[in-house]
Amino acid sequence: MAALFTGKVLRANREQDEVETERELSRALENKVLLLYFGAGQCPRCRQFSRLLKDFFLRLTDEFYVERASPLVLVYVSRDETEEQQHAFLRTMPKRWLAVPFDDAFKRELELRFAVSEVPAVVVLKPNGEVIVGNAVEEIRRMGPACFRNWQEAAELVDRNFLLAEDFEDWSRRSITEPIRRLKYKLDKKTEAKKKERKEEGEDFS
């Protein structure tokens, strides 16, 4: 996937950090499903979808929801009118998002290459750059994080150890308190283990 961005610069961490060397790009992009998000912070449709996409991304990559981040990376390709608008938008999005610099003509090349005519649009790519879904906006709206499993299978990732920590099959029916209950479960298990240890230690001394 790094081949798509060879000789290009990507911005990281919502700031001005650059991810530009071949090694850095390879580490950031290889063996992952890549989402190219074409949007604009001032576009009403994009604003509405961006909130959904942010939640989608976090539920697959943030440790609050999953024990191990899914092999997923997102690159924002903006149609913002100014660089300030792009920065303002990215400040509201996950820190792990990457972005093509505002003044880079490569944005237009990507639009032409993937036939993007309107926004929002999300192009889903395999690690080798092949298209899995030409525009996944409706799929993400309809299925939520569950659609990632289909992309992961289609991508035929080399590392099969990347597994979702949650079963997203019936995600829409899950309670928003699920991550909290899961954390409580982990704490309860630790408490049980400590009690068992103390009990065993007590038996040893008796």
Features:
two-stranded antiparallel ribbon; alpha/beta; 206 residues; 7 strands; Glutaredoxin; single chain; elongated
Question: What is the gist of this entry?
Answer:
This protein is of the alpha/beta class and 206 residues long. Helices cover 42% and strands 15% of the residues. The longest helix is centred in the C-terminal third of the chain and has 28 residues, at 178-205.
Strand content: 5-15%
Query: pLDDT below 50 for ≥5 consecutive residues: which ranges?
Result: 158-182
- N-to-C span: 63 Å
For the residues shown, what is the average pLDDT?
Answer: 81
The strand count comes to: 7
Summarize the main sheet. Answer: 5 strands, mixed
Helix content: 40-55%
Q: What would the CATH topology of the largest domain be?
A: Glutaredoxin
Question: Strands across the major sheet, in which order?
Answer: 5-4-3-6-7
Oligomer: single chain
**How many discrete structural domains?**
2
CATH class of the largest domain: Alpha Beta
Give the radius of gyration: 20 Å
User: How many individual helices?
Assistant: 7
CATH architectural designation of the largest domain = 3-Layer(aba) Sandwich
GO biological process, one term: photoreceptor cell maintenance
Domain Thioredoxin: 1-142
Protein name: NXNL1 protein
InterPro entries: RdCVF, Thioredoxin-like_fold, Thioredoxin-like_sf, Thioredoxin_domain
